[in-house]
Amino acid sequence: MVVLMKWSSLLLVSLGLAAPVSAAPPSTPKPSTPPMNASPGIEAETRAWHTERVSRLTSDDGWLTLVGLHWLKEGANRFGSAPDNDVVFPAAFPAHAGTFTRKGATVSLALEKGTSLALEGKPFTGGALRSDADGKPDTLALGSVRFFVIRRGDRLGVRVKDSEAPTRKAFHGIPTYAPSAAWRVEGRFEPATTEKKISVPNVLGEVEEMVSPGTVVFTVGGQEYRLSPVQEPGEDQLFFIFGDLTNRDETYGAGRFLYAAMPKEGKVVLDFNRAYNPPCAFTSFATCPLPPSQNRLKVRVEAGEKRYGDH
């Protein structure tokens, strides 16, 4: 927990945001139009959506099961539970389980005699491993522990999950704002006339150029705002990575996520009641994207999920 809090504070400093403090929050502008109460329909829909979101988060394969992220060096990387390994795994693993070998953009795994792993429910004896850059990664398992290779820019790493993770067992729910009809906003979609890419930073200090299909222009409290979504490969939704003034005191300091349906007749509905915390709000082993500069709203979006615990 201490490591996670230090990591969160450094992240906020890198974004130019204040880390959370116990003093009274600073006075910041609020929408001139006070939020109206949600209709029974909006409230029920929001509660149902959030219940499903928490179910995914707390599932056997959810973000709360993350227990490790190990970046691989070129060449041999010994792994196992013993502290003298290059990559130290949970105690459930043999002291010296095998070796990951990285050659450029590829990773293979050789197992020590006596180590038994499963790949898709079948025995795995060693060989090349497909990373998440190639679609669904090869996921290996031993007991409650699962791991796979991820690629982030030029980095290749091993992400480790454990369904018995303390973060999963200690989960106590996510506080939220009360659902409000005022925060289900219809915006005007301005499509990009040519292929548009926006610079999206992440917690690793890298910047990725991501395709953005356009911009959504919407109004809150009589003031106009703009958000640029990205469209992930294979997805038929708009994905918004945004920050707002509540990040200073009530919501996660590094911003939140929001999905919206594709434009219909030039309109996009932004339901901020469904704004949610990125995985980095729960674990330091995630590699979350951060709000691009144009998506840092100068308004308090008092809707959706609030800050989880001390993060």
From TrEMBL:
Pfam families membership: DUF1684
Protein name: DUF1684 domain-containing protein
Keyword Signal found: yes
Keywords in alphabetical order: Signal
Signal sequence residues: 1-23
Superkingdom per UniProt: Bacteria
Residue ranges of the region described as Disordered: 22-41
